[in-house]
Every structure is written in C-alpha cells, then in structure tokens.
Amino acid sequence: MKHIDIEITAESGLELLTNDEIARLSEDSKDGDHQLFKKCILAVLNSTHITDEISYHNEQLKHFDVEVLQLNKGVKLKIKNAPSTALVDGIMIQGLKEQVFSVLRDIVFLKQELESNARIDFNSSNGCTNAIFHILRNAKALRPGYDPNMVVCWGGHAIPEFEYQYSKEVGYRLGLRGFDIITGCGIGAMKGPMKGALIGHSKQRINNGRYIGITEPGIIAAESPNPIVNELIIMPDIEKRLEAFVRLGHCFVVFPGGVGTAEEILYILGILLHPDNKDTPFPLIFTGPKASAPYFERIDRFIGDTLGAEAQSKYQIIIDDPVGVAKAVQKGVADVREYRKKVHDAYHFNWQLKILWGFQEEFIPTHENMRQLNLSKDQPTHLLAANLRKAFSGIVSGNVKEKGIREVAKHGPYEIQGDSHIMEQMDALLEAFVIQKRMKLNAKDYVPCYKVVNTTKDRKPEVVK
C-alpha cells in the first residue's frame, strides 16, 4: 500500500476556536496522549482495510505521524504517511476527513474541556452520567425537539456474509421507516444496518439520515470506523461507551456476534433487571437469519440458566423476518415516546434509566481482576449480570485490544472462575463462539485468551472440559 503526506483543514465547529484554544490544542496533541491520538486517526484512515489485528496498525504506526498546526482561520492537521486508500486524486475522502476531526475533538479538545470543567466528575454515578451527557453534547449528538427514532444495532464484526446481508436488510427496512442508526461503528453487523438504512433513506428522500458510530480508544484500531459513519464519537472507555448507547438509543436490535455482543447483552440486561427500571419501556430485539437461529437459542439458554426467566422476559427473538423486526421497532419506539412524554423525560437523552456504579466504573481486565470477579448466584441478579459482563469484556480485551493482548502474552490466559453451573454454561457458550469462528476475523489461528475454571466451596478449582 502506498503512503502519502497530506494537510487537511478542520470543519464543523473546530474552525470556530480562538487562537489561544488552537495553541493549547496543538500543544496538548504532543503530550502523553499523542500516541493515542495517532492510533485513532490511523484507524480511521485504515477503514477500507478489513482486519482486527493490532500488529497491522502498529507496523504502520512506526512511520505515521500527525501534527496540529495553528492557523488564524482554524485548525490544520499535517499527516505524514497516510494510507493512499484514504484519498481520491490526492484529496482525502470527505467522510474520513470528518472522522479524523472527530478524533481531534474527542481525544484532545474534549480533554481540555473536561479538565477545565469543575462539574465533570467521573468518580460518582451521577457525575459519570453528566460527563457522558457533556461528551455527547460536545459532539452535537443530542438534538432536542425531535421524536424518538434512534435504533441501536449491536452485533459482531467477525460474522459470515449471510449474517451481514441479513443485518443490511434489517437496516434497509428501518431506513424505509425513517429510523436513524447507532452502532459500534465497525464492520460486519455494525456496518450492515447503516448501509441498509442509507439505501432506505435514499429511497424515501431522507437526506439528513444519522449513522452514529460510538467507539472507545482501546477498540478503535481493532474495529476501525466504517466509512458510512457520519457522526463518530469516541468515549473514554468501554463502560462510558455502553452507557452512551443506552442513554441515546430508543430501541435496541441485536444481531449475531461474539464475546463483545454477549458483553453488550449482559450490560443491558443487568440494567433492565434493576428494580428501579422494572416499568421502563425498553425495546430489545434479538434477530438473525434462519441459519443463525441456533446462535440465539444458545444465547437464550445461557441467559435463562444464569440470570433466569425474568431476564429472558426482557427481550424478544425474531428469526428471519426483517419486516417483522422493523414493525416491532416501530411499536417499541412508540411506547418509548409515550412513556417519556408521560414522565416528562427527554427524547434525546434517557435520564430516567437507573444505572449503578458497577456498570459505570472502568473495569481494567488484569489477571487478578478477572480472577476476583464474583460469578456466583449469591448476589442480586442484576449484579451477577454486571460481573458476567466484565468477564466477557476481559475476553474482548484479550482478543483484540492492545493492552489485553500484552497482558495475556505476558501472564498467560485469563482465569475465569465461579459457581460450577455458571462456569459450565459460560464454557459452553464460549466454545460455541470458537466453533462458529466468532472470536476474531482470523479464526483459524485463534488461541483462547482465557480458561474457564469450575469452582465449588469444597474443592480446588479444576478446568472445565
């Protein structure tokens, strides 16, 4: 692949900064976050290259650099060795250019904003939600005065072509009905719904469709934003990313995926199982083509065996029926609108939903933290869901995130231990993901970054076979 040096000028907000703000922006881009800044921009520019191998990006990173230049009329970025696939006739693709400046906004400029705002507090539950609101507002993602129409689509990046096509068809049916799409911004079941909705919007002459991609620094290189994303938002960590989804979205559609999708499912179920959220309408739909029915049977069985029937009552499963999914979304969003209207909650941000600190605090998947997770039934069900979510989050880290990969390479696989029954169910689910090649894109060479340990109070741990 050829690499090219290029300079690009900021648009959409950053051109309105004062000279002092630009000077600080330039200086801050050179501090300890500079490497992170470079990695995220390189990930955006690599969006046409499909891979989840960190080594690919790290090799390019050795020769890649970005410099923030101060101009009286705004901000300019000087990019060294940009991938040529990000340019057409020597000019950067407009969508990628917008995403690059979203990185500048969320990684560098937002840091200034958060540090200078005494009201921002990531160390308390209410403070965390307020900070997420601030980040989304700063990204202009919050738009008061519009009826609910945001559909969050979750699913895996490492999926077969027929599942991708199905997610695209569902997105198309949603687009025809005027719904906008939020995903994790990567490929696979994140790109499919956006691409389908784009076609649906075009047919309905909707020219202001929103395709919001929400990511976080640890995962952006492994799941580069797909080119359809027209609003890229980079949250500080996975927990803030997940809360941003549930605060912004009005309905959730889950396609087949791997451990990352299981993490998202457990996160939302843990929140919905909290007593304070019992009566809150929250449409949650699992869907896939006919050939993927066994996947959802396995997920449903795992949820029933670990979290129980109440958790299973929080979602519906629709197989091989994109139109049925779109109509269920319509009904669900209508219910959300009526409820928000009744309780005087905002349409653009779900303040009403109760989210505990255990779902908000950043979980760092060290070997010790993974071993210490309470994966037993001697706790409220919503807290068990929160801890199971952390276990899956650790596996995601070991699979595709740079820190997690280094941790596993240094200390060996993560050990996950807990009640015998829960561990057996978890081991079966993870083994199914491996067999179905849902762990990574390069599935044939996949080496598990974890081992499931079966424990009881009366005997030493033993590895589940």
UniProtKB/TrEMBL annotation:
Catalysed reactions listed for this entry: AMP + H2O = D-ribose 5-phosphate + adenine
EC number: 3.2.2.4
One Pfam family matching this protein: DUF4478
Residue runs in coiled coils: none
Pyrimidine/purine nucleotide 5'-monophosphate nucleosidase N-terminal domain span: 7-113
Domain (Pyrimidine/purine nucleotide 5'-monophosphate nucleosidase C-terminal): residue spans on this chain: 334-453
PANTHER family: CYTOKININ RIBOSIDE 5'-MONOPHOSPHATE PHOSPHORIBOHYDROLASE, PYRIMIDINE_PURINE NUCLEOTIDE 5'-MONOPHOSPHATE NUCLEOSIDASE
Name of the protein described by the UniProt record: AMP nucleosidase
Record organism: Kangiella marina
